Amino acid sequence: MANTISSGASFIFLLCVSNLVSGQIRYSIPEELEHGAFVGNIAEDLRLNVWELSARKFRLASDEKTHYMEVNLENGILFVNERIDREELCRQSTTCSLSLRIAMDNPLAMHRVVVEIFDVNDNSPNFFQDEFSLQISELIAPGSRFPLGSAHDPDVGTNTISTYQISPNEYFGLKVQTRNDGSKSAELLLENTLDREQQSTFDLVLTAIDGGIPHRSGIARIIIAVVDVNDNAPIFDHEIYRATVAENAAKGTLVTKINAADLDEGTNADLTYSFANHVSYKIREIFKLEMETGEIRVEGVLDFEESSVYELDVQAVDNGPANMTGHAKVMVAIIDVNDNFPVVEVTSVTSRVAEDAIPGTVIAVISVTDLDSGENGQVQCQVPGVVPFKLQKSSRNEYQLVTRDILNRENAPLYNISISAWDGGSPPLSTSKTILLSVSDVNDNAPTFTQSSYNVYLMENNTPGASIFAVTALDLDLDQNADLVYSIPENLLQGLPGYAYVTINSRNGNIYALRSFDYEQVKHFQIKVQAQDAGSPPLSSIATVNVIILDQNDNAPVIVSPLTWNSSASVEIVPQSVYRGYLLIKVIAADADSGQNARLSYQLLEATDPSLFTVGLLSGEIRATRRFRDQDIIAERLVLCVKDNGQPSFSSTVTISFSIVSNVTEKSSERSDEPFHSEDFNDLNRYLIIILGSTSFLFLVTIIFLVVLKCKQDRNIAEGNSCTIFCCRRRNSKAPSYRTPAPNQPFNYTGPVQTEEYQYTVCLSPESSKSDFLFLKPCHPTLPFNEVSARDTKAMA
Predict the structure, then answer these.
(1) In sequence order, what are the beta bridge partners of 465?
(2) Which residues of the chain have pLDDT under 50?
């Protein structure tokens, strides 16, 4: 057989032709080729470069379960992948071909390849039995015919049985007949009258020869016994019986009934029905012939798709001593029923599609088939439901799944596309196929902050580098299109760029302070925060962050009045001018903080004689509780505490020394108009030293300072300058600084830096010219001093 294939292949292989007509390529090859045998250059016939096969995902699909063909992607050659047995593949069909589909992407394309399989003469004719036995009456007249068992050859065309031959003899010849299906059968022809007395048996050889090159043949023996008497053969009512049966007929269903008659009598007329010897075993499995009644019934499973008509050769044999046989044909047509579901096959599919794909973009190529015939094989196909996809028919049984509308991944990132197909049978049969399609993201959504504006409340004196707030933006896109980067666009805040005040973590939106903020310098500022995705092109949005600085109690009260030196001040008091409730002095303090942190209260901590003085809690006014007596201590010392209302609170203390001097009011008045003489000062100084000799050296120095101050006050009164201006300016420094005013110049207080400057003008009371004490009163022309101090203190805060 191998030699036959090789010799036949060398000739038939030259018949391989490739055509490209309407997207279809056709090749022709003989069967039984070895693995790797050349079929055709598919790349050349498709006018493709070899490198395009891999780049465009060249794929080969076959309608057959076995992959007989394969394509070498390196050279584009279609070759035999598995030995092809035409008889196994197509049985007795006159034409045999393999249908292949070629799919390519980028762009999506489909081509159909048909490989026609030529038959080679690789099978010899074969009889169903090796020996045929015939009993022929000697009364049979010449010209009588006796059907013989036909041989079977799986090959087709010229390679199948072309003729029969019988061994040479003088009585019998052969009558070769061609059947409807093209097969040939042989009948034994009696050419001369038999004479049993001369020859009672014949042993002949029947040879079946096919038309292949070289010829193949098969043989069977024919043993003929010549008998006497029974000289009438059964005769059927019809030479050909015709019947129809549905392919879903149950076992035992009656197909038809045959009937024959015999002119003989007795046992020679008793008939037995059977299939002719050459009826195949497969037909005998499908149909059953009742021997006595001649009824033909369904025995096996009918399949219209396998065979739409069956040809049965039947015979009737009598029971005479020399059996005689009558022959007839039964043609059984199979009625198709809708017993095959439509088959939906996805030949090429794209698993991902961009959400900005235009309508009409091809998603998949679908092939729909139905093995039934007529209306039962008419298939309709559609995509059910409301989805942005539809089917477009491209050929008789092929569809393209395309997009119908614009896709939106944010609404539907994944589609399970169901494709339904149903035939035209009654009832119709349907099937469905699901295609999973994911929608890839494009950058079509800008980041969105959770708020368009944020308010951040930050306590002053914060730690540099600490997180003060976090902004969050959301992006409906995916992957890099949703990968956000936070930044602070360049904008000026009090002459400095925003990134000089704060910085932001570009990944999580955490905002960090770069410096410690001072409420006294900056009360609030505003920055812009931008969120930008990593898409192409990138999209962004901006939010506003308002940072509000909260005041913290970080400044201690500062004593503004009276003038202090090392937190101490001295004042002279004349007893005759003092009465209960008399204002001795008003202590004025300022606090650079604001709100409750700048709300001050005054408290007397220590006093030489606490019963002589009272201090206003909020005003800081020191007043006498009664008149001074001669027996009272001539030197009084008060320690006053000024405390703010912050948490925790800060405080400052001042020590005020009062000198209680004898009644010298009139003397002072008398001397006020006289020139100042140094000897008077010396006498007073000596007098004070004698009186206060037992006191401490520190108290003596204090008295000298008070006397000197009294002299300066008298000089100022004489010159008409009776007002002192106290100035307070808030600075950034926490520790206040002081500058002692020059004579006849206003007193300036230098505190923490502030953008506003406050001035306090204090005038000497007229009583000061008659007393050793310094009395202060507000010089505002319309407001009382307590209102001025309260308003200025509030402004300072």
Answers:
(1) none
(2) 1-22, 664-683, 717-797
The overall longest dimension of the chain from CA atoms, in Å, is 202
Q: Measured between alpha carbons, how far is 656 from 317 in angstroms, rounded to an integer?
A: 157
Distance (Å) of CA 698 to CA 563, 605, 703, 710, 782: 19, 21, 9, 19, 42
3-state secondary structure of 139: coil
Q: How far apart are CA 229 and CA 320, in angstroms?
A: 8
What is the chain's length? 797
Q: Which pair of structure tokens corresponds to residue 269? A: 């007329």
Strand 747-750 versus strand 723-729 pairing type: parallel
The three-class DSSP label of residue 125 is coil
Buried b (16+ CB within 10 A) or exposed e, 505-542: eeeebebebeeebbbbbeeebebebbbbbbbeeebebe
Residues 6+ apart with CB under 8 A from 29: 12, 13, 16, 37, 39, 80, 84, 115, 116, 117, 118
Convert the pLDDT of each residue in 372-423 to its tens digit.
887 888 888 889 888 899 998 888 788 989 998 888 888 888 889 899 999 8
CA geometry: angle at 705 spanning 702 and 706, to 5°?
90
Taking alpha carbons only, the member of 2, 1, 83, 86 closest to residue 35 is 83
CA distance 57 to 400: 18
Q: How many Å apart are CA 60 and CA 72, to the nearest integer?
A: 11
* Distance in angstroms (rounded) separating the CA atoms of residues 292 and 342: 44
Rg (CA), the chain: 64
Which residue segments constitute the domains of the chain, with CATH numbers given?
Answer: 2-118 (2.60.40.60), 126-227 (2.60.40.60), 235-335 (2.60.40.60), 343-440 (2.60.40.60), 448-550 (2.60.40.60), 558-796 (2.60.40.60)
Using DSSP's 3-state secondary structure scheme, residue 662 falls into coil
What confidence tens digit (pLDDT) does each residue in 600-613 have?
Answer: 899 888 888 787 88
- Is the dihedral angle over the CA atoms 382, 385, 386, 388 positive or is it negative? negative
Distance from CA of residue 110 to its chain's centroid?
31
Are the C-beta atoms of 604 and 610 separated by less than 8 Å? Answer: yes
Contact 149, 278 (CB under 8 A): yes
**What one-character-per-residue DSSP string does 471-488 give?**
--EE-SS-GGGG--EEE-
**Closest to 377 in 3D by CA, of 424, 431, 345:** 424
Query: Is residue 253 within 8 Å of 230, Cβ to Cβ?
Result: no
φ/ψ region of 755 (left if φ > 0, alpha if ψ in -120 to 50, else beta) reads: alpha
What does the pLDDT read at residue 333? Answer: 93
Backbone angles phi, psi at 575, to 5 degrees: -60, -35
Closest CA to 47 of 72, 76, 15, 78: 76
The alpha carbon torsion through 121, 127, 128, 129 (nearest 10 deg) reads -150
Q: For residue 189, what are the β-bridge partners?
A: 145, 173
- Residue whose pair of structure tokens reads 């039934």 in the numeric block: 372
- Give the C-alpha separation, 234 to 271, whole Å: 8
Angle between helices 697-718 and 665-672 (to 10 degrees): 40
Q: How far apart are CA 264 and CA 231, in angstroms?
A: 8
CB atoms within 10 A of CB 93: 11
Helix, strand, coil in percent for the chain, rounding step 5: 15, 40, 45
- The DSSP bridge pattern shows strands 524-532 and 540-550 to be antiparallel
Report which secondary-structure segment, H or E, holds 49. none
Which residues, in sequence order, are CB contacts of 77 under 8 Å at separation 6+?
38, 39, 40, 41, 42, 43, 71
pTM of the model: 0.43
